[in-house]
Amino acid sequence: MFTEGEVGKMMRDCIRLLYERRSVRRFKEDDVDDTTIIELLESANSAPSAGNLQPRDFIIVRDPEIKADLSRAALNQRFISRAPVVIVVVANFPRSMNTYGERGYLYAIQDCSAAIQNLLLAATAMGLGTCWVGAFDEEMVSQILDLPDYTRPMAIIPVGYPADRGHRTGRKKIEELIHRERW
Ligand SMILES: Cc1cc2nc3c(=O)[nH]c(=O)nc-3n(C[C@H](O)[C@H](O)[C@H](O)COP(=O)(O)O)c2cc1C
Q1: Which residues pair with 89 in a beta bridge?
Q2: How far is the centre of ligand 1, averaged over its atoms, from the C-alpha of 1 (Å)?
Q3: CB 86 within 8 A of CB 156
Q4: Is residue 77 lining ligand 1, measured as CB closer than 6 Å?
Q5: Residue 74's closest CA among 123, 127, 25, 22?
Q6: C-alpha of residue 22 to centroid of ligand 1, in Å
Q7: How many whole angstroms from its chain centre is CA 101?
Q8: Domain boundaries, the chain
Q9: Mutate which of 78, 131, 169 to test ligand 1's pocket (most atoms within 8 Å of Cβ)?
Q10: Cα 158–161–167 angle (5° rounding)?
Q11: In terms of Cα–Cα distance, which of 152, 133, 154, 125 is closest to 39?
Q12: Contact (Cβ atoms closer than 8 angstroms) between residue 37 and residue 61
Protein backbone atom coordinates (compact mmCIF):
# COMPACT_ATOMS: atom_id res chain seq x y z
CA MET A 1 0.00 0.00 0.00
CA PHE A 2 1.07 3.58 -0.58
CA THR A 3 1.15 6.29 2.04
CA GLU A 4 -1.03 9.38 1.53
CA GLY A 5 2.11 11.38 0.69
CA GLU A 6 3.19 8.85 -1.91
CA VAL A 7 -0.26 8.86 -3.53
CA GLY A 8 -0.22 12.67 -3.66
CA LYS A 9 3.19 12.70 -5.33
CA MET A 10 2.22 9.99 -7.79
CA MET A 11 -0.90 11.93 -8.74
CA ARG A 12 1.01 15.19 -9.28
CA ASP A 13 3.72 13.41 -11.32
CA CYS A 14 1.11 11.64 -13.41
CA ILE A 15 -0.90 14.77 -14.17
CA ARG A 16 2.28 16.70 -14.96
CA LEU A 17 3.23 13.95 -17.41
CA LEU A 18 -0.09 14.31 -19.24
CA TYR A 19 0.61 18.01 -19.83
CA GLU A 20 4.31 17.43 -20.59
CA ARG A 21 3.54 15.14 -23.52
CA ARG A 22 3.48 16.86 -26.84
CA SER A 23 4.01 15.87 -30.44
CA VAL A 24 7.71 15.86 -31.30
CA ARG A 25 8.65 16.03 -34.97
CA ARG A 26 12.41 16.70 -34.73
CA PHE A 27 14.73 14.03 -33.41
CA LYS A 28 18.38 13.73 -32.49
CA GLU A 29 20.35 11.15 -34.44
CA ASP A 30 21.03 9.14 -31.27
CA ASP A 31 19.71 5.61 -31.44
CA VAL A 32 17.09 4.24 -29.06
CA ASP A 33 18.19 0.77 -27.96
CA ASP A 34 15.99 -2.28 -28.19
CA THR A 35 15.71 -2.68 -24.40
CA THR A 36 14.17 0.80 -24.21
CA ILE A 37 11.82 0.08 -27.11
CA ILE A 38 10.67 -3.19 -25.52
CA GLU A 39 10.07 -1.38 -22.21
CA LEU A 40 8.05 1.20 -24.15
CA LEU A 41 5.95 -1.53 -25.76
CA GLU A 42 5.40 -3.29 -22.43
CA SER A 43 4.07 0.04 -21.12
CA ALA A 44 1.89 0.42 -24.20
CA ASN A 45 0.43 -3.04 -23.83
CA SER A 46 -0.33 -2.49 -20.15
CA ALA A 47 -3.24 -0.31 -21.32
CA PRO A 48 -6.79 -1.57 -20.73
CA SER A 49 -8.05 -4.17 -23.18
CA ALA A 50 -11.57 -5.53 -23.69
CA GLY A 51 -11.63 -9.02 -22.18
CA ASN A 52 -7.83 -8.59 -21.94
CA LEU A 53 -7.58 -10.05 -25.46
CA GLN A 54 -4.96 -7.46 -26.53
CA PRO A 55 -5.87 -7.30 -30.23
CA ARG A 56 -2.90 -5.05 -30.96
CA ASP A 57 0.43 -5.85 -32.59
CA PHE A 58 3.48 -3.62 -32.75
CA ILE A 59 5.94 -3.46 -35.63
CA ILE A 60 9.38 -2.04 -34.82
CA VAL A 61 10.98 -0.47 -37.88
CA ARG A 62 14.64 0.55 -37.97
CA ASP A 63 15.46 -0.14 -41.63
CA PRO A 64 16.05 3.26 -43.36
CA GLU A 65 14.40 2.08 -46.58
CA ILE A 66 11.25 0.89 -44.84
CA LYS A 67 11.13 4.12 -42.81
CA ALA A 68 11.43 6.11 -46.05
CA ASP A 69 8.61 4.05 -47.60
CA LEU A 70 6.44 4.70 -44.53
CA SER A 71 7.19 8.41 -44.81
CA ARG A 72 6.03 8.41 -48.41
CA ALA A 73 2.92 6.44 -47.50
CA ALA A 74 2.21 9.06 -44.85
CA LEU A 75 1.79 11.86 -47.38
CA ASN A 76 5.51 12.58 -47.37
CA GLN A 77 5.74 13.44 -43.69
CA ARG A 78 9.53 13.37 -43.77
CA PHE A 79 10.09 13.54 -40.01
CA ILE A 80 8.97 9.90 -39.82
CA SER A 81 12.06 8.66 -41.66
CA ARG A 82 14.29 10.93 -39.58
CA ALA A 83 13.43 9.16 -36.32
CA PRO A 84 15.79 6.33 -35.34
CA VAL A 85 12.86 4.01 -34.65
CA VAL A 86 9.33 3.89 -35.98
CA ILE A 87 6.62 1.83 -34.32
CA VAL A 88 3.49 0.90 -36.21
CA VAL A 89 0.50 -0.14 -34.12
CA VAL A 90 -1.69 -2.66 -35.89
CA ALA A 91 -5.24 -3.72 -34.98
CA ASN A 92 -5.56 -7.51 -35.00
CA PHE A 93 -9.33 -7.86 -35.45
CA PRO A 94 -9.89 -11.64 -35.18
CA ARG A 95 -8.21 -11.68 -31.78
CA SER A 96 -11.11 -9.62 -30.51
CA MET A 97 -13.92 -10.45 -32.97
CA ASN A 98 -13.66 -14.21 -32.38
CA THR A 99 -15.00 -13.52 -28.91
CA TYR A 100 -17.04 -10.34 -29.33
CA GLY A 101 -18.31 -10.46 -32.94
CA GLU A 102 -18.91 -7.08 -34.62
CA ARG A 103 -18.41 -5.21 -31.34
CA GLY A 104 -14.91 -6.69 -31.24
CA TYR A 105 -14.03 -4.52 -34.25
CA LEU A 106 -14.66 -1.40 -32.19
CA TYR A 107 -12.87 -2.89 -29.20
CA ALA A 108 -9.75 -3.59 -31.27
CA ILE A 109 -9.60 0.06 -32.36
CA GLN A 110 -10.16 1.26 -28.79
CA ASP A 111 -7.55 -1.18 -27.47
CA CYS A 112 -5.03 0.16 -29.98
CA SER A 113 -5.83 3.77 -29.10
CA ALA A 114 -5.36 3.10 -25.38
CA ALA A 115 -2.01 1.40 -26.10
CA ILE A 116 -0.90 4.27 -28.34
CA GLN A 117 -1.64 6.86 -25.65
CA ASN A 118 0.20 4.74 -23.05
CA LEU A 119 3.15 4.53 -25.41
CA LEU A 120 3.24 8.30 -25.91
CA LEU A 121 3.09 8.92 -22.17
CA ALA A 122 5.68 6.29 -21.27
CA ALA A 123 7.98 7.74 -23.95
CA THR A 124 7.62 11.20 -22.41
CA ALA A 125 8.49 9.78 -18.99
CA MET A 126 11.58 8.12 -20.53
CA GLY A 127 12.77 11.38 -22.12
CA LEU A 128 11.76 10.27 -25.62
CA GLY A 129 9.78 12.19 -28.21
CA THR A 130 6.95 10.75 -30.29
CA CYS A 131 4.18 11.80 -32.62
CA TRP A 132 0.93 9.94 -33.30
CA VAL A 133 0.73 9.87 -37.10
CA GLY A 134 -2.64 8.86 -38.52
CA ALA A 135 -2.57 10.49 -41.94
CA PHE A 136 -1.35 7.74 -44.25
CA ASP A 137 -2.38 5.61 -47.18
CA GLU A 138 -3.53 2.49 -45.41
CA GLU A 139 -3.06 0.17 -48.37
CA MET A 140 0.48 1.37 -48.92
CA VAL A 141 1.40 0.88 -45.26
CA SER A 142 -0.16 -2.60 -45.23
CA GLN A 143 1.81 -3.53 -48.31
CA ILE A 144 5.12 -2.10 -47.07
CA LEU A 145 4.82 -4.04 -43.80
CA ASP A 146 3.30 -7.25 -45.24
CA LEU A 147 0.31 -6.93 -42.95
CA PRO A 148 -2.20 -9.82 -43.07
CA ASP A 149 -5.52 -8.77 -44.61
CA TYR A 150 -7.40 -9.27 -41.33
CA THR A 151 -5.46 -6.39 -39.74
CA ARG A 152 -5.38 -2.61 -40.17
CA PRO A 153 -2.53 -0.22 -39.34
CA MET A 154 -3.78 2.25 -36.72
CA ALA A 155 -0.84 4.59 -36.18
CA ILE A 156 2.71 5.25 -37.24
CA ILE A 157 4.77 6.50 -34.31
CA PRO A 158 8.26 7.86 -34.87
CA VAL A 159 10.32 7.54 -31.67
CA GLY A 160 13.57 9.31 -30.84
CA TYR A 161 15.30 11.68 -28.48
CA PRO A 162 13.77 15.11 -29.08
CA ALA A 163 15.90 17.70 -30.91
CA ASP A 164 13.55 20.33 -29.57
CA ARG A 165 10.72 20.40 -27.08
CA GLY A 166 8.03 20.97 -29.70
CA HIS A 167 5.43 23.45 -28.58
CA ARG A 168 2.45 23.25 -26.31
CA THR A 169 -0.78 23.30 -28.26
CA GLY A 170 -3.93 24.84 -26.83
CA ARG A 171 -7.21 23.10 -26.23
CA LYS A 172 -10.86 24.18 -26.35
CA LYS A 173 -12.31 25.48 -23.12
CA ILE A 174 -13.46 22.33 -21.36
CA GLU A 175 -16.96 23.79 -20.81
CA GLU A 176 -17.42 23.76 -24.62
CA LEU A 177 -17.09 19.97 -24.51
CA ILE A 178 -18.95 19.12 -21.34
CA HIS A 179 -22.60 18.13 -21.17
CA ARG A 180 -24.32 17.65 -17.86
CA GLU A 181 -26.82 14.83 -17.33
CA ARG A 182 -27.96 14.88 -21.01
CA TRP A 183 -26.55 16.02 -24.43
C1 LIG B 1 -5.63 10.16 -34.68
C2 LIG B 1 -4.50 11.15 -34.77
C3 LIG B 1 -3.88 11.34 -35.99
C4 LIG B 1 -2.80 12.24 -36.10
N5 LIG B 1 -2.14 12.33 -37.28
C6 LIG B 1 -1.06 13.15 -37.38
C7 LIG B 1 -0.29 13.18 -38.57
O8 LIG B 1 -0.58 12.49 -39.55
N9 LIG B 1 0.79 14.00 -38.61
C10 LIG B 1 1.18 14.77 -37.54
O11 LIG B 1 2.19 15.47 -37.65
N12 LIG B 1 0.47 14.75 -36.38
C13 LIG B 1 -0.62 13.95 -36.27
N14 LIG B 1 -1.32 13.88 -35.09
C15 LIG B 1 -0.86 14.68 -33.94
C16 LIG B 1 -1.75 15.91 -33.74
O17 LIG B 1 -1.48 16.84 -34.76
C18 LIG B 1 -1.44 16.51 -32.35
O19 LIG B 1 -1.69 15.55 -31.36
C20 LIG B 1 -2.29 17.75 -32.07
O21 LIG B 1 -1.94 18.80 -32.93
C22 LIG B 1 -2.11 18.24 -30.63
O23 LIG B 1 -0.75 18.52 -30.36
P24 LIG B 1 0.06 17.75 -29.21
O25 LIG B 1 0.09 16.28 -29.56
O26 LIG B 1 1.44 18.36 -29.24
O27 LIG B 1 -0.64 17.98 -27.91
C28 LIG B 1 -2.38 13.01 -34.96
C29 LIG B 1 -3.03 12.79 -33.74
C30 LIG B 1 -4.06 11.88 -33.64
C31 LIG B 1 -4.69 11.64 -32.29
Answers
A1: 58, 155
A2: 37
A3: yes
A4: yes
A5: 25
A6: 9
A7: 25
A8: 24-164
A9: 131
A10: 80
A11: 125
A12: no
| Contact predicate 133/156, CB 8 Å | yes
Ligand 1 atom closest to Cα of residue 75: 8
Return the ligand 1 atom nearest residue 156 CA. Answer: 8
Please, where are the H alpha helices in the chain? 4-20, 34-45, 64-73, 79-82, 93-100, 103-125, 138-144
**72-120 residue pLDDT tens:** 999 999 999 999 999 999 999 999 999 999 999 999 999 999 999 999 9
Task: Assign domain 24-164 to its CATH superfamily.
Answer: NADH Oxidase (3.40.109.10)
Phi and psi, residue 11, nearest 5°: -65, -45
pLDDT for residue 166 is more than 90: no
CB of 76 within 6 A of ligand 1: the answer is no
C-alpha 150/C-alpha 101 separation (Å) is 14
pLDDT at 120 (0 to 100): 98
Distance CA 91, CA 83 (A): 23
User: What secondary structure letter does DSSP report for 67?
Assistant: H
What residue owns the CA closest to ligand 1's atom 3? Answer: 134
CA dihedral defined by 29, 30, 36, 38, rounded to 10 degrees? 40
Whether the pTM exceeds 0.90: the reply is yes
What is the sign of the dihedral through the CA atoms of 92, 94, 99 and 100?
positive
Neighbours of 166 (CB within 10 A): 15
